[in-house]
Design brief:
149 residues; alpha+beta; 6-stranded antiparallel β-sheet; 5 helices; 6 strands
Amino acid sequence: MHGTYALKSSVRLAREYGALRTIQNLAKDPGRLVWRPVDIHDDARGLYVLAVREGSRIRHSRLTDRGAAVLDIHVTTYTEPGSAETRYAVTYDSRTVKKVVDHQHRAIAEAEYERLVRSEYARQDLGVTLPLARLMGGLTRFYDETDVI
């Protein structure tokens, strides 16, 4: 189990260490995909997405409904194309959004990961009906897999 204690707000972390960089930002509307603005040049986006996909997953939270993935949030360490630097990506994949952001510092990526995992539990508006015991049982009961405590 991993535990990260947020000593600083995400706004303060961004001010001190730089903001997260958006690699992929895709809205999944019924019948079509809508690409939203990113911080990576369009020609390089595919290389970055592939590098993140082939990276090593170091943290992971998943929610399923009747065996189908509803929400998948994970942190991946990967090698940035071109510079060959190690970076840390956070992937958020739901039925309606696929977003990948990254940062050069692992602590910043992990803080964003934990923020996303906790905020989805707090909102619980993913369009699925879960048993009450699962909704009221905390993070470890809500998610099928999680390392956030």
